[in-house]
Amino acid sequence: QELLVQSGGGLARSGGSLRISCDASGFTTRYYAIGWFRQVPGKEREGISYISTDDGSPHYADSVRGRFTMSRDVANKTVSLRMSDLKSEDTAVYYCAAAPSGSLGGRSPLITFGNWAFAAWGQGTRVTVSS
Fold first, then answer.
1. Cα 24 from chain centroid?
2. Among candidates 101, 100, 83, 105, which has minimal Cα distance to 38?
3. Which of 53, 35, 50, 52 is nearest to 95 (CA)?
4. 28 φ, ψ to 5°?
5. Integer Cα distance of 34 and 40 in angstroms
6. Residues 41-72, buried b or exposed e (16+ Cβ, 10 A)?
């Protein structure tokens, strides 16, 4: 089973903060990394942060580094993304994702980020930043 359940998000003013979370307790397949992506209409889904299970450290895209903080609660199998100093360009649908082990044939979307192939996705959470 590969279930990722997201919560949080919503509306914030420019310069404000929001938090989104992902419950991976229903993800029983082994995975190599878990991360966050975002997508705006007409653009490709963009990887913004991930934590791999081997080093446990968060990695960030340049667009969010210094403003977003990803954390992982291993015991409770949850990950969160704290978004600060929000900008209008952060408006997007945010997705929790995992890079599962095993065959990835036929998976869509399948996006490589930080050398990991992310192929399992949460339901998406809308974040809107008003100026």
1. 12
2. 83
3. 35
4. -95, -10
5. 21
6. eeeebbbbbbbbeeeeebbbbeebeeebbbeb
pLDDT bracket for residue 106 (50, 70, 90): confident
Calculate the alpha carbon distances from 105 to 18, 36, 119 in Å: 35, 22, 10
Instruction: Work out the end-to-end distance of the chain between its first and last CA atoms, rounded to an integer number of angstroms.
Output: 40
Q: Are 119 and 106 in contact (CB under 8 A)?
A: no
Q: How far lies 36's CA from each of 20, 93, 131, in Å? A: 10, 10, 24
Longest dimension (CA), the chain: 44
Tokens in use for 29?
């397949």
Task: Render pLDDT for 32-78 as a digit per residue (tens, 0 to 9).
Answer: 999 999 999 999 999 999 999 988 999 999 999 999 999 999 999 99
